[in-house]
């Protein structure tokens, strides 16, 4: 459902009421509370919202029909049928009081049985039974009691309680008690449930049809969202085509065009970076060859360090600019990747402990993810002498943590550390040089996988880098 509170704020009258005092202010507060409650309890999915929009009017309409039409119809028909039964009883009482002979009684009894479908019996004169407690909504008892009191005007006792198919009525005559037993169906509208059965059955069929129709309408939207999510995470989008309503088709076609433009832009960027990388590496190679013919001097060593730093910075710039869009996703054993990180750190003269708990095969871009972890491990080794890497799959997410015991990064500087070309060496180690792209590249790779990179306090006392991407 829509945000009722936001809708409320768009209404000038509601804003005016909110600025008033007294009852209007209380009304405004009540409306805002109700809007917030409705927003919390209402479903958030498009399918459930649309289904509720269809079902709610049907339920309200049926409730009104049952209350207004069925209740009135039931009471009116019951009143007329009870009135007819009372008139029949009145005729029997009149005949018995004015023609009390035994022969006439037998004829009246036969007439009541055949024509009126009633069983009558004359009982000795005795006090009538005490009235039984009546249900609050007993329409039959109310109508029969009212009719006998108004038309016959004699003491009576009536039994309409229970699930019996018959109604017993006793009327006190001058010298006897007239006992009348008639069928319950003669006194009230017994076929009203047929209307309810037809109404609810038809509504159920309509709801099922609407349910199937909604599923067909919602399915193209779900496919579009899944395709957009997969493309945003860099996964291949296969066999996606525009379908559904015209509005959904336009959105799908817009997504397809956007995907083509982005893919074309990535292809052009990859071609450009390949050319730049080739040209710059060629120049650096020529410089290294020329430097090799220079004698061993302090200046030669300084120039060699500058070339190494320039080459390293070039690789960082190209990695940051190229991203990971040109690499395919494949099944990767992260436990083996962690072993490679340990070996590479050992070759560089650092000690790194890495472990992966549980199943370690995940669908990722292997080269890019290794570059991400390598940057984090390199940062840890640069600023600390103890680095630990741990990984696990939890709740459908791949979680990798890289801990070090270095000086860490203050909380207010952690988001700044992700900025490209921004270095925090003044706070960590002034002797180290770099391009300031390590964390930026790592976060870009994590987000390219549909996740993110977070900086936290490490149990080792330094900095923890936590990578979280969909498994």
TrEMBL record:
Principal location: membrane
UniProt membrane topology term: Multi-pass membrane protein
UniProt keyword Ion transport, yes or no: no
Record localization: Cell inner membrane
UniProt domain HAMP: residue ranges: 215-267
PROSITE patterns: HAMP, HIS_KIN
Transmembrane segments: 46-70, 194-214
Entry keywords, A to Z: ATP-binding, Cell inner membrane, Cell membrane, Kinase, Membrane, Nucleotide-binding, Phosphoprotein, Transferase, Transmembrane, Transmembrane helix, Two-component regulatory system
Residues annotated as domain Histidine kinase: 275-471
Keyword Transmembrane part of the UniProt annotation: yes
One GO molecular-function entry: ATP binding
Enzyme class name: transferase
Pfam families: HATPase_c, HisKA
Enzyme Commission identifier(s): 2.7.13.3
Catalytic activity annotation: ATP + protein L-histidine = ADP + protein N-phospho-L-histidine
UniProt-listed PANTHER family: SENSOR HISTIDINE KINASE ENVZ, SENSOR PROTEIN CREC
Name of the protein in question: histidine kinase
Lineage of source species: Bacteria, Pseudomonadati, Pseudomonadota, Alphaproteobacteria, Hyphomicrobiales
